[in-house]
Design goal:
2 copies of one chain form a homodimer.
Chain A: H1 13-41, H2 48-54, H3 62-65, H4 69-92, H5 98-114, H6 132-154, H7 164-178, H8 191-203
Chain A binds a DNA duplex (30 and 30 nucleotides) through helix 1.
Chain lengths: 208, 208
DNA sequence: GTGGAAGCCAAACAATCGTTTGTTTAAACT
DNA sequence: AGTTTAAACAAACGATTGTTTGGCTTCCAC
């Protein structure tokens, strides 16, 4: 079951541009609304009617763009992963020191996660293991991204032997969990600050 | 009908005990099954029928023990928090060094989280903010527990000024997230090992 | 202008949801 | 003994779920 019917793509002629432009606008609008709702209420907590009414459409109309709720969710997830990955790549540009690279990546990662509006904050699981097939497809989407952090951690110069895997998991866990406690408001720490602080706590001598 | 000043307890006959025993058994069975399902599939991902069939009962019968699905979930959540809190308290007994105390607490916390069977692994949010009232009641249940980690972190001797709040959040985030990647099998690291490793990564000098 | 596809609505589908109701069974108390 | 009460079943309630179907527009290509 691959991509049998990819609606309205590769339209011929100039008209296709305008038409698919509007289509993409609509489609993108659905994806944005779905991302917001999925991030806030989960997969089974969000109904197709919720998404439809958030985009000013009717439930059935969504099926013109996406063949099923699961496929819609997978697309949202894929977009989110791609977006956050792009942020990290961009943040790494021009940074050469390994620890600084990790700091930059951590900040970009968290910043991407916190974009609950706009794109998404769904790089995290917790989204209904109900269907094992869906769960696996989601994992595949994430694996590529997480490998990037593996490389960053592998490049770190360490004072002594450490379990680099646990180092990566501690940092990523702390960052992913941060989406649950970072609050809005003026005294809110920026994602970059938090990322730098976390990396610093690991890097430096903290205890006496 | 006057007031019968009846001691709802201290039945002379063993019958009263036996009855409430069976009641508690059944009720506990429901709680256990619900905990397992909620932990695996989330609140909205688990139906009352799922819970009923897992306990060998009919859907309607659950309402003899719990007035609603939300109340059942709250009870499961409360039990989970109490259980993991007790684990942490027990693990702290006889340990006096602040860093060792944090290590012990971290291990016990993770061990409690990983008990997906038996008790639960629901100290974490991600469970449908849908109903704000429910979300708040869940938060209240968790706040008391998390305060314990605040005390442990406050007692740490630090090499220099650090943001103790971020230290706590990094560690707890890493631990909570661990429930998603800790695998079964022979080469699986124990919760205590992971907790000690995480605390060590923060405490020691890691970078060069 | 005519044909036909793109885009969306309107309405309904069967299935499942949380919950309620009335009744039965079995045990316990008097 | 007779009465009460806890515990569960059996069946249905209305609401909501994901999804399907058919038709109505709109607009471009010819």
């Amino acid at each position: 079951m691959g991509f049998d019917i990819k609606p309205a793509q590769g339209r011929r002629r100039t008209a296709g541009t305008a038409a698919s432009q509007r289509q993409n606008n609509r489609r993108h609008k659905v994806l944005a609304a779905a991302a917001k709702l999925f991030a806030a209420k989960g997969l089974s907590g969000t109904s197709m009617r919720d998404i439809a009414s958030a985009t000013g459409m009717l439930p059935g109309s969504l099926y013109y763009y996406f063949p099923s709720k699961d496929e819609l969710f997978l697309q949202v997830h894929a977009d989110a992963v791609a977006d956050i990955d792009a942020r990290v790549v961009e943040a790494l540009e021009g940074v050469s020191d390994p620890w600084e690279r990790l700091e930059a990546a951590a900040g970009a990662h968290l910043e991407g996660l916190l974009r609950r509006d706009g794109t998404v904050a769904i790089v995290q699981p917790h989204f209904d293991d109900q269907d094992p097939e869906l769960a696996q497809r989601l994992r595949v989407q994430r694996d590529g991204y997480e490998a990037r952090f593996g490389e960053l951690v592998a490049a770190l110069p360490l004072a002594q032997e450490e379990d680099r895997r646990l180092l990566r998991l501690l940092l990523l866990g702390g960052l992913n969990w941060a989406t649950l406690w970072v609050k809005e408001g003026p005294d809110r720490q920026s994602p970059a600050e938090i990322g730098r602080a976390f990396v610093g706590l690991i890097r430096r001598q903290v205890g006496v």
